[in-house]
Input
Amino acid sequence: MERPEIVSSEGRIDTPAAVTPAWPRAQLVAFFVMVAVFLVAPFIVYPVFLMKALCFALFACAFNLLIGYVGLLSFGHAVFLGSAGYVSAHVAKVWGGPPELAILAGTSTAAILGLVIGALAIRRQGIYFAMITLALAQMIYFFCVQAKFTGGEDGIQAVPRGVLLGVLDLQSTLAMYFVVLAVFLAGFLLIYRTIHSPFGQVLKAIRENEPRALSLGYEADRYKLIAFVLSATLAGLAGSTKALVFQLASLTDVHWSMSGEVVLMTLLGGLGTVFGPVAGALIVAALENYLAQLGAWVTVVQGAIFVFCVLTFRRGVVGELGRILRQPL
Amino acid sequence: MIKAFLGALAALALATGPAAAQISDGVIKIGVLNDQSGTYADLAGPGSVVAARMAVEDFGAAKKGMKVEILVADHQNKPDVGSQIARQWFDVDKVDVIVDVPTSSVVLAVNQIAREKNKALLVSTGATSDLTGKACSPNAIHWTYDTWALANGTGSAIVKTGGDTWFFLTADYAFGHALERDTEAVVVKNGGKVLGKVRHPFPTADFSSFLLQAQASKAKIIGLANAGADTTNAIKQGAEFGIVKGGQQFAGLLVFLTDVNALGLDKAQGLLLTEAFYWDLNDQTRSWSKRFAERHHQAMPTMAQAGVYSSVLHYLKAVEALKSDDGPKVIAKMKEMPTDDPVFGKGSIRPDGRKIHPMYLFEVKKPSESKGPWDYYKVRATIPADQAFRPMDQGDCPMVKK
Amino acid sequence: MLLGIPPQALFGQLLIGLINGSFYAMLSLGLSVIFGLLNIINFTHGAQYMMGAFAAYFLLQWAGLGYGWALLLAPVAVGLLGIGLERTMLKRLAHLDHLYGLLLTFGMALVVQGLFRNEFGSSGLPYAIPGPLTGGHDLGFMFLPNYRAWVVVFSLTVCLGTWFVIERTKLGSYLRAATENPALVQAFGINVPRMVTLTYGFGVALAAAAGVLAAPIYQVNPLMGADLIIVVFAVVVIGGMGSILGSIVTGFGLGVIEGLTKVFYPEASNTVIFVIMAVVLLIKPAGLFGRTQ
Output
C-alpha cells in the first residue's frame, strides 16, 4: 500500500537520473551565494546572532536528512543537540580540554545516543516513530534535569572557548564566527554528498517503496538506522559548537520545544530541499530575535507558522522558490 | 591581521580612558531583565518595570538634566535566552546596568557576562546566595534577599517559636537542594530535628503522594523547599488532604505576596514565610505601595519589585555623585554611600555586594483576620539587619580579605 | 513492614496512583479513540484538556455556573471547537501523510497555549472544589479526600461506558467498520464524514472532561497539558495505538506504577513511564494490547 509522500513531489526536476548532474546549476549558484553572504555578514549583522543561526542551520540540515530523504519524522531531535552541548561544555570547562576535543566528544556522544534511540525507534514507522522519539527524548530531558553533571536548571555556565588547535584564540568573536562557519559548511557538504551518493539513492528508494527495496535485497532497517545515526551525529556537531559559542549548555537545548523548533525551521524552509533548512533556520532565528521583547508571543507565532505551512505552504520558502525556478533547491 | 585590527581598536578605546568621567553616550540605559510572561511574571515582571520607572521619576532625572532610558526584555527563565539578551544589550544597545533578573540559573549567567563586559548588575529577584559567595563580583550587588537569609529567617525563627520537628518537601533540582540544605542546617543549629525528607521531580503537578508521606511523618512543620507553581500546588493540595487541619503547618521557603494572592487566604492561612518587604509595614511603605498599586492595576508590590525601586534609585544617586556610569566604579560608589528609601528605610551595602536590611517572618492571616484586599500577613518576628544575612567571612567570596 | 514502608502507607500510595491513573486513562482513551478511528495523532489533546479546565473556570466566573454544569457544558463547548478544527483544517490533510496531521495539531497546540498564556499568565487560576465534594474520609491508612474518590468513579464510568459503546453497540460497530473500509461503509448509506467529525469531537470532549476534573485539584494554568500530553503519548504507545481497552487498562496501571515509584524512588517518578515504554517497545513493539498492522 503506497503512502502519500511526506515530501511533495512537485519541485523535483523531471530529468532522468542518468542525466542529472552531480551539482545542478541552480544549487551550485545557491551554494556560492550562501557562502558569500555568510562571509560578509558578520561585518554587517551582530555576529553572535549569525553564529546562532548557523548552528541552528546545521541542526536543521541534519534533521532534514532524516525527514526529507528518509521520510522519518523525529520529534525528539533536540536530545542530540542538547546532550552533545553538555558533553562539549563539560570537556571544555571541567576537563579543560581544547575546543576541538570538546566538539569531538560532544559529537561522538550524539552518535552513540543516536544509535541507541534509533535502534529502539526504527522498529516502528511513521507516527509511532515520531511519538517514540518524543517520549524517549522526554525521558532524557528529565534525566538532564536531575543529573549532577548537567548542572540541572543552571546548566553548565562560563564554558571557556579555548584555543583552537593551539593557535586560534576563540575568545575573539570574529575568530569564533569563522570557525562556526567552517563547521557548518563541513556538515552541509557532508549531507549534500550523502544525499547524492548511492547510499542516498537507496534511502530514497526505501522512502518511496520500502517493500520493493526490501525485495531488491536492501536491508531497509539498517539503512534507516545509519541515516538516523548520521543525522544525530551532525545535530550533535551543531550542539557541541553552540555550547562553545554561547559558553553555556542548558536545558533549553534538550527540551521538546527545541525539537518542535527544528521541525518548524525545516518545514518553513522546505522539507527535502537542500537549502531549505538553512533558510528556515535564519528566518526562525531572526523571528525569535525580533519578537524577544514580547516573550510569550513567540510560541503563538511559531504555532501559527506551523499551521499555515502545513495547510497551504507545504513546500516551504525554498521549495516554492525551487518550483518557480523549476530547479530543485 | 584581524588581531592587529582588534588591537588597534582596543588601543583607541583605552586612549579615550579619561572620558570615563562622563556618562557613556550621554544616556543612562537601564535594562530590566526578568520573566514577563511566565511563572514569575506576577511577582516581578511588568511590576518591576513600573518600580524602575518610579525610581527614575522620584530621583528627578529629568530635572537634573540626566537622560535615563529603560529597556525591558523577557528572559523566559532560561539561562541561554537571558545571556543572549544580556550580551546583545551590553554589546549592541549600550545598556549600562541590568536590574532584577529572577531565576538563579539566569542571574548566574548574566553575572558572568556583566563582569566580562565591565558593566553593572543589580539583582533584586534572583535568589542564589552564591552571588555574594563563590560568584561574587565587583560588578554586581545582590539587593533584596537570598537563599541564606530565607533559610535563616524561616528556619531559625520557626524553631525558636516551637516548630522544632521538620519534614522537607524538596524540588529535585539544584535550587531546591540548596534551600533544603541551608534550612536544615539552621533548623539543626537551633535545636530542631528533621524527621524526613522527600524529593519530588521538578516540576510536579500532583503532590498527593508526597503529602501523604509528610503527613505520616507527623512533623510539626512541613518545609517546602521549592518555588513558584510547585509551592502553590503543594499548599493547595495540602488543604485538600487536611494537612493544616491535622495540626501541621507549612513553611514556605520561597513565597511571595503574589503567591498568597493566587492561593487565597482559605488555602494559605497559617503559612509561615520570610520576606524583606511588605506593603503594610509602616507609613512609608504604605504610601509608596499605594503609589505603586495605582500604576500597577491595584496590585500591591512584592519585595522583588520594591527591591528594583530601591536599587535603581540608589544607582542613580551614585551615578550622579560620580558623574559617570562606568560599571564597577558605580558599584563601588554604591557600596560607599549608605542607602535610604521609603521601601527598606536606611541600610548599607557590604564589600561582598550584599545589601543589608532587616528581614521579617510573616504568618498568613486567616480569612476572618483580613480586613481587605492584599491584607494577608501578620508579622511574627523581625530579624535585625546584622543577623539577617550570612556573615561575610562565611561566604567564600574571593573579594573579601580574610 | 512491606519493602521498607508500612502497608498502610503502601495502600495509600496505591490509591493515589489509581487516582492519577484516572487522568491518564481518560486522556489516553480520547487519544486512542481519535487515532484508532481517524488515524490522526491529536497533539492538541493537551491544549484541549487545558481548555476544558479553563471552560470550567469561565463558567464559574462569568456565568456563575458551578462544577456540575461545567462537567456537562465544558466538554460540549470544547468538543464543538474541536469539531471546528477538524472541519476546517484536519479534513484538508486527510489525503496526505498522517505526519502532517501531527504537525498541524502540534502547531495548533502552540497557538492555543501561547494565546492563553498571554492572556492569563502562567501562575494559574484558582478553582475551588465543589461544595458537596469537599472534605474526606479517614480510611485508617490514609485520609481520602472525597473529590479524589469522585475522580476515580467518574473516569471509570466514562472509560467503561466508552468502551462499551465502541465495542458492544451498533453505533460502535459502524465506527469500527468505517475505520477499516470507509468507502464500503459509505456505500451502505452511513454518513462517514459526519461520523468521523463527531468522533473527533467526542475524543476532544473526553480531554475537556478530564480538564474539568483536574481544575479543582491542579492549578488551572495554560501549560497544564503541555508536558502531560507527552506522558499520555507514552501511555498510548504502551497500551497499543487504537486499542480502547489497552488505553484504559494501561492508563490506570501506569498511574499505579508511577505512584509506587513516588514512594520507593521519587526522583524517577517522572521517567518511569518512559522507561517502561522503551522496554515494551523492545519486547512487544505493537504495544501490550495492540495489533500489528
User: Anything to note?
Assistant: The mean pLDDT of chain A is 87.
